[in-house]
Amino acid sequence: MDAAPPYLSGQFLLAMPGMGDPRFAGSVIAMCVHDPAGALGLCLHQANRELTVPELMRQLEIDPGGTPEVRVLVGGPVEPGRGFVLHSTDYAGQDTRFVGNRWALTGTLDVLKAIAGGEGPAKWLVALGYAGWGPGQLEDELGQHGWHVHPGEDTLLWNCRAERRWTEAWGLTGIDLRHLSASAGRA
């Protein structure tokens, strides 16, 4: 009997330099779900230049209160109108899914209302859209060397600006990006 593949929930996917899919160039993806049915992650490397979290709340008819003027992230190309909050584990809402012991993911409005009311998680990021893979699809991509898997550190989520995450994440791996090539060579 074959062993189950190592599932990546709670880890980070880093796009390799020169990755063939331009939608994921420079990507850092927080993997939130990965099981036999497929995978779901949130891209962390690109802020929506036109939308802040308080503005999103106002569009959803939620009074933002004192919510900080933080940009909403472009979470990925799948369902760009669907929202997610990736947050610390000190909050659980209607559909919160805990991702290892590292963070939690909520996709219902209750978490935004809690944040606006000062009763939400201590740390959070808001994203529209997600990166998704069908059964076996991510495993195939990993075999083609488009992604580097890294456990990373939670500072990538909470203490790093979106546009710096890819470079910072590679720095945490101990791999110097200057030594990576977008094409294979011959020995």
Q: Assign the CATH superfamily.
A: VC0467-like
Largest sheet: 10 strands, mixed
Q: Write down the domain tally.
A: 1
Structural class: alpha+beta
Radius of gyration: 17 Å
The N- and C-terminal alpha carbons lie at a distance of 36 Å
Look up the CATH topology.
VC0467-like
**Which spans have pLDDT < 50 for at least 5 consecutive residues?**
none
CATH class: Alpha Beta
- Which percent range describes the beta-strand content? 25-35%
Q: Sketch the topology as an H/E string, one letter per element.
A: EEEEHEEEEHEHEHH
Name the shape in a single word: globular
Helix content: 10-25%
**What's the mean pLDDT score?**
90
Question: Architecture, according to CATH?
Answer: 3-Layer(aba) Sandwich
Count the strands?
10
| Helical stretch tally | 5
InterPro entries: AlgH-like (IPR003774)
Protein name: UPF0301 protein H3309_13100
Family: Belongs to the UPF0301 (AlgH) family.
Pfam families: DUF179 (PF02622)
Short account of what is shown:
This protein has 187 residues and is α+β, with helices and mostly antiparallel strands. It contains five helices and ten strands; from the N terminus they run ββββαββββαβαβαα. It has helices at 53-59, 109-116, 137-143, 155-158, 165-173; strands at 12-15, 28-35, 38-43, 47-52, 71-74, 78-87, 97-99, 103-106, 124-133, 147-150.
3D structure, described in words:
With 187 residues, the chain is an alpha+beta fold. The protein has a single domain (12-179), classed as 3-Layer(aba) Sandwich (VC0467-like), CATH 3.40.1740.10. The protein has 5 helices and 10 strands. The chain has helices at 53-59, 109-116, 137-143, 155-158, 165-173; strands at residues 12-15, 28-35, 38-43, 47-52, 71-74, 78-87, 97-99, 103-106, 124-133, 147-150. Strands 1, 2, 3, 4, 5, 6, 7, 8, 9 and 10 form a 10-stranded mixed β-sheet that branches. A hairpin with a 2-residue loop joins strand 2 and strand 3. It is globular and about 45 Å long.
